[in-house]
């Protein structure tokens, strides 16, 4: 994440925290006023003020912009393009490398090749003896 995107995200989180704190304070104030006998229960004081609502929505947009600015370059959608890109780069980022290497497993192809080489060598030795 770049410096600019971190600053934008941090600023948006500060705004979001402030909107949350303001909403909490407004709710606490309303609950204290509602318990008094002078205010009716149908009063519109229970609704959050427009400035707190706008601040909360604006802060979510600013945080989203900061996070989008800080994302990495998107990877290709098709598997063949992605696999080709990894092969061109040398295969260093291949997430399936451990599965392809099969570390700790018996390599059947290698064993078959060794057996075939051994049989050829043994067959040639048998021909030379006769």
TrEMBL record:
Entry-linked InterPro entries: EMC_subunit, MMgT
Residue stretches spanning the membrane: 46-69
Cellular compartments annotated: Endomembrane system
Membrane topology label: Multi-pass membrane protein
Keywords: Membrane, Signal, Transmembrane, Transmembrane helix
Leader sequence residues: 1-19
One example of a Gene Ontology biological process annotation: protein folding in endoplasmic reticulum
Tagged with keyword Cell wall biogenesis/degradation: no
A GO cellular component entry from the record: EMC complex
Family per similarity comment: Belongs to the membrane magnesium transporter (TC 1.A.67) family.
Listed name of the protein: Magnesium transporter
Source species taxonomy: Eukaryota, Fungi, Dikarya, Ascomycota, Pezizomycotina
